[in-house]
Amino acid sequence: MTAPLPSDGHRFRDPRTHLATLASGDVIVICPRCAGPAIVRPHSDGSRYSMFWPRRLTCTGCAYYDSWTSSSPWYWEGPIDPFFQQPLWLRANCCGGKTLWAYHGEHLDLIEDYVRARQRERGPERSFTSLLEKLPAWIKAAGNRDEILRTCRQLRAKLPE
């Protein structure tokens, strides 16, 4: 992944990140047992593509755990994790009933840097559509910038330590 340009609040270059890339690491979800934060973590099985690695959902609050294998389908729809279909921990209402969500802190950083920028540039590689190109219009709208950044700060405060 190409690093975005330093964010000075004026300029941002799309690093061409895909949602699957962000989901290939830890994803923070709501525990199905205690409703606290839980982590969906991949475990390498030696295969090349991490999207096919088994996953384990673990809650340190109540010791709940579950397992996922690549024989199960995954879903890329809205504020749920693609493997266990659990609601994401980092989600909040924003901009008149819309839901702003992120898989983890790095995903939240990407959204914040993009929204904060006054000038947004596409990255050099155009072989696939990036996450940022697929963002809904309400996130891209300059008129929503302040509310989205305020909501990002609220979500950042929820990040588990």
Summarize the structure.
The protein has 161 residues and is an alpha+beta fold. The protein contains 4 helices and 8 strands; from the N terminus they run βαββββββαβαα.
Spatial order of strands in the largest sheet: 2-3-4-5
Radius of gyration: 16 Å
Q: Please tally the β strands and state the result.
A: 8
Tally of helical runs:
4
Helix amount: 10-25%
| Mean model confidence by pLDDT | 87
Descriptive account of the structure:
By secondary structure, this protein is α+β, with helices and mostly antiparallel strands. It has one domain. Helices cover 21% and strands 21% of the residues. The protein is built from 4 helices and 8 strands, in the order βαββββββαβαα. It has helices at 19-23, 105-116, 137-140, 145-157; strands at 11-13, 27-30, 37-42, 55-58, 65-68, 90-94, 98-102, 119-121. The strands form 3 sheets. The protein has a 4-stranded antiparallel β-sheet with strand order 2-3-4-5, with no helix packed on it. The radius of gyration is 16 Å and the shape is globular. The chain starts with 10 loop residues before the first strand and ends with a helix. The model is unreliable at 1-7 (pLDDT under 50).
